[in-house]
Amino acid sequence: MFEKLPLSLATKWGDVLDIKNLKVHHLSGAMTNEFYRISGPTKKENVSRVLVRLYGEGLDRFFNRDEEIRTFECLSNNGQGPKLLGQFANGRIEEFIHARVCPISD
To answer: TM segments (predicted)?
Structure first.
């Protein structure tokens, strides 16, 4: 399911030049989940589109995933975070937000 969801989302973007050229980039730094950024060439530039979150194994013992998704959706719907774009058995797809880490000096 994970492989089909990003492609189904990409077909709705409208400005992707070639869906077959979408690239998957592993992101590091997560403690409990795996994160992947999906990007691809568009008519304007090479754009990062979505963040794929794969839940860590066994963590559902500590987190209520249904409650987590409800909270995430509520925040998302009120403009307080990335949009929830899709869900699958062991993860979700979110809007990718371009950001930087704020140094402690700021």
So the answer is: none
